[in-house]
Specification:
With 74 residues, the protein is an all-alpha fold. It is built from 4 helices and no strands.
Length: 74
């Protein structure tokens, strides 16, 4: 994450955020994971990373279902 930010590797940042969120989910920290996925989604939208968007939205929807949150896609 640190190196991706240092070198401004946005795709690397998005992938790292997805991986970090998955680790947090495994630790039962869904809401922390969700925050990282929101950041990843913002970057994916801005830079048109459609191939990563599916993973992001799938992980977000799983968290929403577990936490009984509304699923809102902007």
């Amino acid at each position: 994450m640190k190196l991706a930010r240092e070198y401004k590797d946005v795709q690397g940042i998005v992938k790292a955020l997805i991986a970090l969120s998955q680790c947090l989910v495994m630790q039962n920290k869904d809401m922390d994971a969700y925050k990282h996925l929101e950041e990843a989604r913002e970057h994916a939208i801005e830079y048109n990373f459609e191939e990563l968007m599916f993973d992001i939205l799938l992980n977000m929807s799983d968290i929403c279902k577990r936490q009984n949150l509304p699923i809102i896609v902007k």
